[in-house]
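User: What would this chain look like folded?
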Amino acid sequence: MPWFAGVPREQIHWHPTVDEKKCVRCGLCMNCGRKVYEWQGEAPVVARPRECVVGCTTCANLCRGAAISFPPLAALRAFYRERKVWDAVKQALRDEGILPASGRSDGETESNDDES
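Assistant: Here's the prediction, encoded as C-alpha cells.
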C-alpha cells in the first residue's frame, strides 16, 4: 500500500532533532524500533532520519531530558493536504478491500479528510 501516496520519503520532512544541551544521555532514544539513532561519542545522534515513522513522536514523548523535538505536526498535515496523501491512501485502502469500496465510514464527512 502506498502509505505516502507515491511521495518519496525524502520529500517528507519528518524526523527527530536532538538538543544536545538538554540531553541527559539516558539512552532511551536508543530503543527506537526503526534504529533512527546511534550513540556517537557521549551522546545520541539522528543517524538515519528517513527511517523515522512519519507522524511518530514516541521518542520525544518519552525523552527524559525533553531533548528531542520534531517539526510542527501542522506542517506535516499541510503537506498531506497539499499532496492529497489522505485521498490517495484512502483510495488505496479501498482498492485493497480494507475500506468499503464506496460510501462513508461512521462519522466521516468531506471536511474530515482535511482536518483528520
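Residues 106-111 have pLDDT under 50 and may be disordered. If you want, I can go into more detail on any region.
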